[in-house]
Amino acid sequence: MREVIATNQAPQAIGPYSQAIKAAGLVFTSGQVALDPATQQVITGDIAAQTDRVMKNLSGVLQASGSSLEKVLRCTVFLKNMGDFAAMNEVYGRYFSKTPPARSTVEVARLPKDVLVEIDVIALA
């Protein structure tokens, strides 16, 4: 059985996808970018500001599913510029200070709405 997760604590889907799917004791989030859930607009700011917004969006989706950042098993981070890795990592580390999840980080040519970072996670439900 799978459950679609939707919340106004994160940006609404801008395409044919769900914010997250809960199934088999896990939560699979769609990638979150630095959109303000209230305005659906990209926030202004550097990689640190965008990473902070992304983590808040992920937290909102996980909370709506009954999970949390503390239950995240794996993250995938997509960066527009690997030169932003240290600044992204500093903000990311604030959210995962204890027992951080497994993670992959890759540089990509382009992200939706030309944001600087996108992150998706898999968490325990």
Keyword list:
2 helices; 6 strands; 125 residues; alpha+beta; 6-stranded mixed beta sheet
Q: List SSEs in N-to-C order.
A: EEEHEHEE
User: Tell me, what is the CATH class?
Assistant: Alpha Beta
Q: Could you state the CATH homologous superfamily?
A: RutC-like
**CATH level-two architecture:** 2-Layer Sandwich
- How much beta, percentage-wise? 25-35%
User: How is the largest sheet built, in terms of strand order?
Assistant: 1-2-3-6-4-5
- Average pLDDT number: 97
Q: Indicate the radius of gyration in whole angstroms.
A: 13 Å
Number of domains: 1
User: So how many helices?
Assistant: 2
Secondary structural class? alpha+beta
Q: How many strand segments?
A: 6
Helix content: 10-25%
**Unreliable sequence segments:** none
CATH topology: 60s Ribosomal Protein L30, Chain: A
Q: Judging from the principal axes of the Cα atoms, what is the shape?
A: globular
Description:
The chain has a 6-stranded mixed β-sheet with strand order 1-2-3-6-4-5, with helices on one face. The protein has helices at about 45-65, 85-95; strands at about 1-5, 20-25, 25-30, 70-80, 100-105, 115-125. The relative contact order is 0.24. It contains 2 helices and 6 strands. Helix 2 links the parallel strand 4 (about 70-80) and strand 5 (about 100-105). The protein has about 120 residues and is an alpha+beta fold. It has one domain (about 1-125): RutC-like (60s Ribosomal Protein L30, Chain: A), CATH 3.30.1330.40. Helix 1 packs parallel to helix 2 (about 85-95). The two termini are about 15 Å apart.
